[in-house]
Structures are given as C-alpha cells and as structure tokens.
Structure of DNA-directed DNA polymerase:
Amino acid sequence: MIGLLDCNNFYASCERAFNPKLEGQPIGILSNNDGCVIARSNELKPYVPMGMPAFKIPPHIKKKITLLSSNYELYGDMSQRVFSIVQEYIYDTELYSIDEAFLHLQNKQNATEYCIALRKIIHQCTGIPVSIGLSLTKTLAKIANHVAKKNTDYQGVYFLNPDHPAFASILQQFPVTEIWGIGRRLSVKLSNMGIQTAWQLRNCDAHFLGKQFSVVMERTILELRGIPCIDLEGTHTLKKNIMTSRSFGNATNDFHDLEDIVRIHASRGAEKLRSQHSLAQAVLVFLKTNRFHKIKSQYHPSIAIPLLYPTSDTREIIQAAQNGLRRIYKKNYLYQKAGIMMLDIVGQDKNQLNIFSNTNTDEAKKRSEILMQTLDNINKKMGRNKIAFGATKSTASWNLKRNHLSQRYTTRWDELPVVKAV
C-alpha cells in the first residue's frame, strides 16, 4: 500500500494558520520580487489564473483578494513540522516536495482509518489541512489524492482500489494531462494518438509505447494497472546539473553587487553538491538584462569555468565563479538576473588527484571535507548563512522585493505570534 500525502493549498494554508482572518478569503502568493501569482487558494482560482503577473490583475479584482509575498522561511519550517509528525507515525516516508510525501503503509491494517486519524493529528498540531491518496502504486496514489481533495465525503482520504467497480470510472474521467510524469508536450503527442484519459493509457500496449517514448512511459502504464514499477526511493537520483539563480529587486550594473550575489549563489550551489555527496568539474556563470525592456540594449553572457579537479569546496567554487564574472561583466548594461550552474557532476567517490596541483592531496582533501562539514553542521543547526564567505550589504540592489511579506512566525524571535488575553 502506497500513500501520497499532499498539503492542501500549502502556502495559503501556512498563512491562514497564523492569520485566521484569511479563512475563506481568496489568497494569492507572489513569486520573487512580487512578480507573478505562483500559488492560489481555491477561492482565488476563479479570479486569477496561475502565473498571472501581479500588475495585470484588474484593480476591481485586487480589491477583493489578498496578495502576499512568498514567505519561504515560514513555508519551509511548516513543511518540516508537518512531515516530522508524519514520520512519527509512518516510518517509511519519502519526501517528494515541500508539501508532498509518499508513504509506505505495507504493515498498516485499516490504512484508510489510520490515515484519517493521522490527518486530524496533523491539522490539530499545525493547522495545515492535508489529503491522502492510497493505492497500490505511486501513480495511482497520485490519482487517489485528486479524488480525496475533490470529494468531501471521503474525509480527505481515498483508497483507489483496482479491483473496485468504481476504478474504471475514475480513470475514464481522469485526463491524461494530469497523470504524474506526463508533461504538456507528451500529453499533446498522446492526444494526437487518441489517448486522452488515464483509462485509455492504461489499456495501451506498454511495451510499444515504451519504445515510442521512454521506459518511464512503460512504467507509468504498468503502474496504472496496479503493478508497482517505481520504488519508494526511486526518484532520488544524482542531479547532473545544479542551478542557483535569482532576479534582482532592482536592476544594477554595480560590479560589487554582482560579485556578492555570485558568491552567495556559488556558496549555495556548493552546499547542494555536498548534500547529495557529489562534486562539480566546472562552474557556469551567467548574467541577464531585463528582456522585457525592449528599448534598452540586451546582454545575456555566460561562461563555463573548468575546475582543476572535481570539488564541492565552497572556497574553490566561489573563486572560479568570480573569475568567470570578471570575464563576462560589462559595465554599460543594467543586469536583472545572475546565476550559477554546477556542471559535469560526479559522485564523491570519483575525485581524482591532479599531479600538477599541490592542493588536491589526500591531506588537503581531508582538511577541506572537515571544514565544509563543520560549516554545514553549524548552518544547519543555527540557520542558513550564519557562517558565510564574505559580507553582504543588507541594502544591496539585488535584494528581493517583498512588499507584502507576512511575519516569519516560527523562525524569527522578533516576529513570533502574540496571543493577547481577553
């Protein structure tokens, strides 16, 4: 038995947990720099489509809705709280995203009742509503979760049983575009073949479509038939590239500002490398001007800087990244975005010595690993960037615009919620 636990309207629910006045109100969460709507409560969906730029929302609609800046500190902490509760009751848990997790319920009797009780505990402890879909495979559990959300009769939990008479009806009404792993382009190709529902895809020749598309398609078809093909930990693979980037609150041509943000991105990229026990062999640095400003000159440079040897040492990656920045920077342009990409990623066990370098000896590698591990442990315990390389101006022009930011209720001492006695 596989379960898919999904936090309902997660970002909006986090805001409502600490501001009950938002209950029942249409809420939209904005992207970085308060640009586009990236999350919506159910009440907002009839008014604003996903991804709509905030400045395009008509004034008469803006008066009826609440728009909030992305409060990632709050959302990340609430996610950790929800799934720490889940892991207390279900040991085999695979975190899939900030608001989703797959659950292994093989040893649980009466799984539906168990999950209904778990759902109540999560809501009582965090204020976050969740829905849980149950079935024999991950793909079917995803579909079951959709049913659990749509139909209130199921108390937020639904078991999609392939042997139940309703199974065929549910898959016949489920569009192929909504199936886990079927993207927009692939769904168009399937539609051209006359495959528009999950039931139609389930009844296709799995081997034939696997050859036409990929082994993932073959596995998806088998999963729709109730045959598990995707292991519980099957989605955790070594990333081939790691990117960290950000659009700026205000465009800038200040080299020192760009140097700061490139250093921060490089540090974050190195941290991600270490978290998956891997090393990068090259670093790509890129800058972008604002492509929406048609009048101004455009410049979108990038450069890949090879590293002397595969590494995840923050110091070496920062040095390479800033070297790349110096080579592509031109002062006559206003830049709106900068980013870093780690290239040619290999496993930590693939680190090779370099006969032309005295810095990649076994002793130097050991010192580097100890230093980076200490850095990561302190930042994990005390908060990100408690120890960082270099100083950053709090007034830097690239800082995010978050003009509608709510309090970071659970991660900042000075923003803790206050309960007033009546």
The mean pLDDT is 85.
